[in-house]
């Protein structure tokens, strides 16, 4: 089924020069990049994005981390991209992430885990509409 997911390259991913590596893995897998922008998230945006985690002890640190620098916001489209995107990203805790996944290959710390990916259809829908206006999602047109 064609679907869309929201992916964010967090400030550590940008600062470590991993933007092209991360986008490249999604592109080469065969997912279609339909939305892309770079922002400095506000505290309010980070709190909204991670609202489900507001009762966790690491919430304040997470908001601080996410707002600490530039973030690349992406929307990828493709067959099974929500689940498949999470396979590319790897387990939340980089210590559990398989080699070959982005977190498995590039990081070691759960509080500096490089990248976010929507964890299901509802969160994908909510996160895409939180970070992107409809008009910022592109259509690919092919010359025939
Ligand atoms: P992400 O996939 O963006 O979804 C929730 C985020 O919370 C997760 O990646 C981590 O960045 C962060 N997180 C989850 N568990 C912990 C933890 N135990 N300590 C610190 N940060 C965490």
From TrEMBL:
Residues 2-139 form the Nucleoside diphosphate kinase-like domain. It catalyses: a 2'-deoxyribonucleoside 5'-diphosphate + ATP = a 2'-deoxyribonucleoside 5'-triphosphate + ADP. The active site is at 116 (pros-phosphohistidine intermediate). Keywords: ATP-binding, Kinase, Nucleotide-binding, Transferase. ATP binds at residues 10, 58, 86, 92, 103, 113. GO terms for biological process: CTP biosynthetic process; GTP biosynthetic process; UTP biosynthetic process. Its cofactor is Mg(2+). It comes from the Eukaryota. GO terms for molecular function: ATP binding; nucleoside diphosphate kinase activity. The keyword Kinase applies. Its EC number is 2.7.4.6. It is an enzyme of class 2 (transferase). Belongs to the NDK family. This is Nucleoside diphosphate kinase. It comes from Tieghemostelium lacteum (Slime mold). The lineage of its organism: Eukaryota, Amoebozoa, Evosea, Eumycetozoa, Dictyostelia. The chain holds residues 74 to 217 of 221 of the full protein.
């Amino acid at each position: 089924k064609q679907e869309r997911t929201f992916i964010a390259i967090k400030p550590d991913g940008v600062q470590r020069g991993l933007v092209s590596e991360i986008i490249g893995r999604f592109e080469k897998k065969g997912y279609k990049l339909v939305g892309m922008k770079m922002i400095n998230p506000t505290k309010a945006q980070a709190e909204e994005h991670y609202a489900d985690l507001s009762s966790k002890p690491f919430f304040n640190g997470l908001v601080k981390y996410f707002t600490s620098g530039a973030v690349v916001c992406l929307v990828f489209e493709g067959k099974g991209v929500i689940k498949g995107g999470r396979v590319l990203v790897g387990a939340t805790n980089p210590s559990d992430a398989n080699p070959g996944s982005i977190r498995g290959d590039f990081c070691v710390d759960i509080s500096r885990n490089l990248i976010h990916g929507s964890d299901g259809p509802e969160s994908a829908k909510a996160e895409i509409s939180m970070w992107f206006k409809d008009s910022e999602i592109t259509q690919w047109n092919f010359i025939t």
